[in-house]
Amino acid sequence: xxxxxxxxxxxxxxLLTFPVLQGLKEKHPKAxxxxxxxxxxxxxxxxxxxxxxxIVYKGSAFTMAKELRRMRFNRVVDFHxxxxxxxxxxxxxxxxxxxxxxxxxxxxxMTALKQxxxxxxxxxxxYALAANIAxxxxxxxxxxxxxxxxxxxxKYVAWVLGAKFKTKQFPIAKIKEALxxxxxxxxxxxxxxxxxxxEEILHxxxxxxxxxxxTDFSEAAWVLSNAQLVVTNDTGLMHLAAFFNRxxxxxxxxxxxxxxxxxxxxxxxxxxxxxxxxxxxCSKIGYPTCPKxxxxxxxxxxxxxxxxxxxxxxxxxxxxxxx
Length: 323
Description:
Elements: E1 2-6, H1 11-15, H2 18-27, E2 32-37, E3 52-56, H3 61-70, E4 75-78, H4 83-92, E5 98-99, H5 104-112, H6 123-131, E6 157-160, H7 172-180, E7 186-189, H8 195-204, E8 209-210, H9 217-225, E9 229-233, H10 236-242, E10 248-251, E11 269-272, H11 296-299, H12 303-314
Parallel strand pairs: 1-2, 1-4, 2-3, 4-5, 6-7, 6-9, 7-8, 9-10, 10-11
């Protein structure tokens, strides 16, 4: 039996499919699982403790469908559900095709009409409905390896700097304000795009350890799994941290937890939001810059409160805390 899952978006979106891929493997243990994804998402699959075979999307929908049709999939689960995947179905001549419900109508009401009382169920639960499985009760244990770049403190705060869109990224001046009120070891995580930010932070806080641009996904997973606390934007590594259920402080900018894209199955999460803004949420994804120019959803974040929560949680023992 061959099963194809499709997810062509950001890294975090692919990570959110993992509990469902786990459920598919449990329900169909002899099946061969494939996922159609982008090339930059392929290394994520090495985190899984079971085999999921990547198929990299290339060319047009027509040529891709021709390649997929030859593989004779028994089931196709479309976690993406857009025009491109509709064309794939059309060109593959598939009548049985299960799609996730994206709930874009509700999200439009939230962003365009500012109906802030509305919420959307977790995307993981909607993925599971599309796959026609029950979500596993056991938390997925990801593969991870300690980073070779630097020796880490025994206890530390992992601070995730990155985000795909700037309106989801905590400004560097606000990070400095919070760090100035914190005395514990901090390990910075992010991609090469955040290198300049990490260097500026290190200039002001030389005792901070930066692993920005120095870890692969497996190493980043290890750093997050052993952190006393994770501070993060709404970004891919937030979803990676969720698998380890570490205490987490999430800083939200233009997006909101109500979109259903928050960390899944976490019991130690606190959300930092600037509530009551008439312009928020402004997008279900994000923008390169604030459409209004003021960026109040981040600039008005209470860094003093954030620092107090970091200090308190760092010294608080939680279930599963590193020794």
